[in-house]
Amino acid sequence: MSTLDTGAPVRVSFRDVSVEFPTAQGPMRVLDRVSLDIRQGEFVSIIGPSGCGKTTLMNILGGFVQPGSGEVLLDGKPVRGPGPDRGVIFQEYGVFPWLTVRQNIAFGLKLAGNHVPKAEHESIVARYMGLMGLRDFADHFPKHLSGGMRQRLAIARAYAVRPQFLLMDEPFGALDAQTRSAMQDLLLEVLQTEDKTVMLITHSVEEAIYLSSRIVVVTARPARIRTVIDVPFGYPRAENVHEDPRFGELRAQIRALVMEEYAAQARQTVRLSD
Ligand SMILES: Nc1ncnc2c1ncn2[C@@H]1O[C@H](COP(=O)(O)OP(=O)(O)OP(=O)(O)O)[C@@H](O)[C@H]1O
């Protein structure tokens, strides 16, 4: 099991986690004996082929899926279900269509119970609407927003609660390149001021390197840990790490690993359809 020993306490522990889902062809194994520790303040990215089991891994930590065997511990206790300590940003816009921008962000705060004092709700909502460029749309409903704005709203809602853990599944995938880069920088900024532990699923090797302290490359389905890579850059992190020669080397190394796993998954798919 790889853990970057920062001396910080281990907050999340995947222990020998396996999951199978029933299918018409019988049980399909999606995760295979995954073990991973995540320490306080770490930013861990998960990268691997499409459909290999990454979201399932995150859903177990989110408390939405139970492992078939093994366990996931949060501060030493098995995860039993979702909770306000874990802010989740899904691939698809997780916003309520019947609530306005302002109400969507405020709703997350209400859900968080007493965790965020009521007197602070209004200023928190205003702050995150501002950060996400949504202030002029405060009273708009999601259907009147562009796809990118809806995703920014989902991100605002998750950040506003200030969860200890951020679980992000391709949060920036649907955004245009400029907005994506702005959202990456904003995330780094939020993390500088609020001590969080982050698990990010991404298909972008650059994004993983730019943001993470560790990158977990997972195999073709069933997802197993192929390798864990320590990112050699500290925080605060600035745009110019993209020009560091180590950035290019890491990118080439990770791309090669991910491509191998895509190829393995493609061979599996061909076998399945024989
Ligand atoms: N609740 C479920 N019931 C049955 N099958 C499921 C369920 N959830 C996921 N799967 C299947 O498990 C496999 C892995 O899905 P998962 O979403 O974890 O992959 P992923 O790596 O996140 O994919 P992507 O990168 O495309 O988002 C897929 O074949 C998916 O169809």
TrEMBL record:
Pfam families: ABC_tran. Keywords: ATP-binding, Cell membrane, Membrane, Nucleotide-binding, Transport. It comes from the Bacteria. Residues 12-245 form the ABC transporter domain. One of its GO terms (molecular function) is ATP binding. InterPro entries: AAA+_ATPase, ABC_transporter-like_ATP-bd, ABC_transporter-like_CS, ABC_transporter_ATP-bind, P-loop_NTPase. Belongs to the ABC transporter superfamily. This is ABC transporter ATP-binding protein. It comes from Acidovorax cavernicola.
